[in-house]
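The passage that follows is intended for readers who have already worked through the single-chain material. We present the inputs for a multi-component assembly, then the predicted structure in tokenized form, and finally a short commentary. You are encouraged to pause after the input and sketch how you expect the pieces to fit together before reading on.
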Amino acid sequence: KAGVTQTPRYLIKTRGQQVTLSCSPISGHRSVSWYQQTPGQGLQFLFEYFSETQRNKGNFPGRFSGRQFSNSRSEMNVSTLELGDSALYLCASSLEGLAGGNTGELFFGEGSRLTVL
Amino acid sequence: KNQVEQSPQSLIILEGKNCTLQCNYTVSPFSNLRWYKQDTGRGPVSLTIMTFSENTKSNGRYTATLDADTKQSSLHITASQLSDSASYICVVSSYFSASKIIFGSGTRLSIRP
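Having made your guess, compare it with the prediction:
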């Protein structure tokens, strides 16, 4: 059973540019959630998509957006990049998602490491 | 404010020894608590998931406990191995929080031969 695949694994951008990251979930999983991990802030929840609809959203500015396709693959986009956006971006897939009370396991990908110069 | 605090921040122990990592949370209303292991440069891997009614859950040499009254959890690692060197992250989910899932800052565990 294939795991969660994130692409690209590494990328370098300059301030003001925009970036799109991709996440392919485990087959059959309809929930994809995104996270930002930095040394200073740790892991923070960005947003979750379930069956092509954004179901939950963390406290990030509107420059961070995402979408999910009918095959459950998801993309996240960051526009007008800032130095502080340098981070490891992780996605996770699950059957049930993050709705209250769900205890389904989250399966994380290996992440996309973004460096903003 | 929903928070998850872990201690210690880092820990070094000798191979074969046991250790216990702590997690205190103020998340309310509580849904579930998860422990993850994250190797350097890799994505987190789930160790245990516990709900309000569960006090203890084991996964091999890893045993997690939960006291929902005091809002504390611990992760006990028995007979540590070099491969246990990693960051251990406590994650708490809330029913009604807008962000739904709150991460602790993790404990960096190093096992020395």
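Commentary: The CA atoms of residues 10 and 108 of chain B lie 4 Å apart. The radius of gyration of chain B is 14 Å. How closely did your sketch match?
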